[in-house]
Design brief:
729 residues; alpha+beta; Ubiquitin-like (UB roll); Creatine Kinase, Chain A, domain 2; nine-stranded mixed β-sheet; 18 strands; binds adenosine-5'-diphosphate; binds magnesium ion; Glutamine synthetase type III; glutamine synthetase activity
């Protein structure tokens, strides 16, 4: 029992819960206490500065330099009162994480003293040395400067002793180098387009916000086990390991009682999150053993995206204090469910109306139907772009693996709303007759509110489902930045709503009444977008066949799915909605391909090391003990007795040899495949080579290593096993 594995087991079994009690009163006493929110802005800023920031937040107005100085002074005073000594621009580069570079407020004065200084200039703009962030070839290394610029629509916050200021990150020449910049542009575009359409129904609407409520799934493993597995530590997931005899088949983990160590972790992270204004509301066990979920109340999409990024960061930090490591990877363990991040999305007006909430009157229901049907049409026309936004090496393991929605994008709306759309589809074209209007009122539009609430059932197999008053994009990966899917969803929605407006206006211009025109256009859209609607089992093979017949794409791997973000139509959407220009889109495409290729490369190297340094030596050591035992039997017994006694062991010896031989030769083949792939100069071709030639070899190696895990003496096996990773708490 000399292996690191037994040390890990001992460590873990001796763990006690790390108690955490907030001791800060009720949640309402400390919610948002570490955020420079409306309340603290009023308290710490001049009236002029406050008004200026408010109109920047509400109306997108610019803040001039002098006012920025006042804002900075107020922000600094508030931050210092919370114990801050440093400040940083906080941004989300295309690496996927968050970035920060702390500077002290402290500045020496000429007379040898020091003051705390924070000017408007420091608030508004910084120039981090950005040469080592991914840029997809936009910047030459000699012109490596990038700017971060303050985003006043997402409030600053204090973590520990640092004031964090949410910013965008752009190159010297103005191209976006982060996730937030295109998101803000898409949100602005959908605001304008949706406001114009909402004004058909209510002239008072001046602004429409996209809303996002994310649900974050994750695994927790003990930090000893995490460190005991090189694949966990380096690739964030188990690259090999036999499934435990008991997995999730009894469904006994989902919504089960939460283990004490985990509850303490959850309480601490909730406390931290709530102080930072992240409105965490829900926590529970998920389907797989050691899998859990957090969900907040939804917020304006930009703030929600920042909050999710911040939350993922917090999770990692707090987990360590409880001797856990958080696994945000989409598929840490083969054989049990992976993790996703549902993106609940809707549009809300500044008059307080959720545009995807069926209303109480026929008029508000026509508004609901308008936004509802336009969403379906947008997803129909640009399903492939949505597919591209959720593509990643990790998510490839989930999509289409019969546990997450498939790689085929479709929309689920439920039986009742399908019936409503079928009814609308049967309308005669042109001006509506009085009879048709009465019918509509009574049987279609008037019926929506009563039927809806209980009946938008949860078809968990759909990647894009309507759930009563919002759409839920379920195919997003657990470690993804929500900004990517949110940028594209809002951009295609903006594009669609603009088209709708021009279609309706054209009919009105030809003398049709507004309501009639809206019905006519909606009817056409229902027809045109029918093939994207699917109410059945998205996991089944029947759907794959049916989808192919309908002409829906099913691209299971990342390098090829990413093609969909650089089609001429995708670039048109990005450009016309002011989200990204061609250069930016192409740079992003390049970055994502490169990231994919690097991740597989790392996984392949780690697997090669583990197979060579852990698995094979252990297998051979165990095989030697068998050989020794067989040898002894031979010495002790006559030929016939020996044969009958030793046969089973002889079989095991040759079985071990068989697996070892395959692993050794496949390991060589994998290195050759990598060499070949690395010699390619085109990034896309290289990513595809990794996908098509390296990944399959990894699977073969894993298969044989997992067989050996079952053959070899448990006491000799060096890597923590799945049953230990998943069931020790
Ligand atoms: P579940 O999908 O787990 O059954 P719910 O449907 O109650 O749970 O809500 C899931 C998430 O949807 C929550 O984060 C919630 O805040 C969010 N949500 C609810 N309404 C909206 C909305 N109008 N816009 C965006 N997200 C919303
Ligand atoms: Mg949900």
């Amino acid at each position: 029992m000399s292996t690191i594995r037994f040390f890990c087991i001992e460590e873990t079994m001796n763990r006690k819960p790390v108690n955490f009690t907030p001791n800060a009163g009720r949640v309402s006493d400390y919610f948002g206490s570490h955020v420079f929110n409306d309340k603290s802005m009023r308290a710490y800023m001049t009236k002029e500065a406050y008004r200026s920031v408010r109109s920047a937040i509400d109306l997108g107005a610019k803040i001039d330099r002098e006012v920025a100085d006042q804002v900075a002074a107020g922000m600094k005073a508030w931050a210092v009162s919370k114990g801050a000594t440093h400040y940083t621009h906080w941004f989300q580069p295309l690496t996927g994480g968050t970035a920060e570079k702390h500077d002290s407020f402290f500045e020496p004065t000429e007379d040898g003293d020091a003051i705390e200084k924070f000017s408007g200039g420091m608030l508004v703009q910084q120039e981090p040395d950005a040469s080592s962030f991914p840029n997809g070839g936009i910047r030459n290394t000699f012109e490596a400067r990038g700017y971060t610029a303050w985003d006043p629509t997402s409030p600053a916050f204090v973590i520990g002793t640092t004031l964090c200021i949410p910013t965008i990150f752009v190159s010297y020449t103005g191209e976006a180098l982060d996730f937030k910049t295109p998101l803000l542009r898409a949100l602005q575009s959908v605001d304008q387009a949706a406001t114009d359409v909402a004004q058909y129904f209510d002239k008072n609407v001046k602004k429409v916000n996209a809303t996002l409520g994310w649900e974050q799934e994750y695994f927790l493993v003990d930090s000893a086990f995490f460190n005991g597995r090189p694949d966990m530590a380096l690739a964030g997931r188990a690259l090999l390991g036999h499934g435990p005899a008991k997995g999730q088949q009894l469904d006994d983990h989902y919504f089960g009682s939460i283990p004490e160590r985990v509850i303490q972790f959850m309480q601490e992270i909730e406390f931290e999150a709530l102080r930072l204004g992240i409105p965490i509301k829900t926590r529970h066990n998920e389907v797989a053993p050691s899998q859990y979920e957090f969900a907040p109340i939804f917020e304006e999409a930009n703030v929600a995206v920042d909050h999710n990024s911040l939350f993922m960061d917090l999770m990692e930090k707090v987990a360590r204090r409880h001797n856990f490591r958080v696994l945000l990877h989409e598929k840490p363990f083969a054989g049990v469910n992976g993790s996703g991040k549902h993106n609940n999305w809707s549009l809300a007006t500044d008059t307080g109306v959720n545009l995807l909430q069926p209303g109480k009157t026929p008029k508000s229901n026509l508004q609901f139907l308008t936004f509802f049907i336009n969403t379906i049409k947008a997803v129909h026309d640009h399903a492939d772009m949505l597919r591209a936004t959720i593509a990643s090496a990790g998510n490839d393991h989930r999509l289409g693996a019969n546990e997450a929605p498939p790689a085929i994008i479709s929309v689920f709306i439920g039986e009742q709303l399908s019936a409503v759309l079928d009814e609308l589809e049967r309308l005669e074209s042109g001006k509506l007759s009085p009879q048709a209007k009465t019918d509509l009122k009574l049987n279609v539009v008037g019926k929506i509110p009563e039927i809806l609430l209980d009946n938008t059932d949860r078809n968990r197999t759909s990647p894009f489902a309507f759930t009563g008053n919002k759409f839920e994009f379920r195919a997003v990966g657990s470690q993804a930045n929500c900004a990517q899917p949110m940028t594209v969803l809002n951009a295609i929605m903006a594009d669609q709503l603009r088209k709708f407006k021009s279609d309706v206006d054209a009919l009105i211009k030809n003398g049709m009444k507004k309501d009639d025109a809206i019905f006519n256009v909606l009817k056409d859209y229902i027809k045109a977008s029918k093939k994207i609607r699917f109410e059945g089992d998205g996991y089944g093979d029947a759907w794959k066949e049916e989808a192919a017949k309908r002409g829906l794409n099913n691209v299971p791997d990342t390098p090829r799915a990413l093609d969909f973000m650089v089609t001429e139509e995708a670039i048109r959407i990005f450009e016309e909605n002011g989200v990204l220009n061609r250069v930016e889109v192409e740079a992003r495409h390049e970055i994502l391909l490169e990231e994919y290729q690097k991740r597989i490369q790392i996984e392949s190297r780690v697997l090669g090391d583990i197979a060579g340094n852990h698995v094979i030596p252990t297998a051979i050591r165990y095989q030697s003990t068998l050989i020794e035992s067989v040898q002894r039997l031979k010495d002790l017994f006559d030929e016939k007795t020996y044969k009958s006694m030793a046969q089973a062991q002889l079989d095991m010896i040759s079985e071990i040899s068989k697996h070892v031989t395959v692993i050794i030769s496949e390991k060589k083949a994998m290195i050759e495949a990598r060499k070949k792939a690395n010699a390619l100069t085109d990034t896309r071709e290289m990513a595809i080579a990794y996908c098509d030639t390296v990944k399959p070899i990894m699977e073969t190696i894993r298969y044989h290593a997992d067989k050996l895990e079952l053959l070899v003496d448990d006491e000799m096996w060096p890597l923590p096993k799945f049953r230990e990773l998943l069931f020790t708490r």
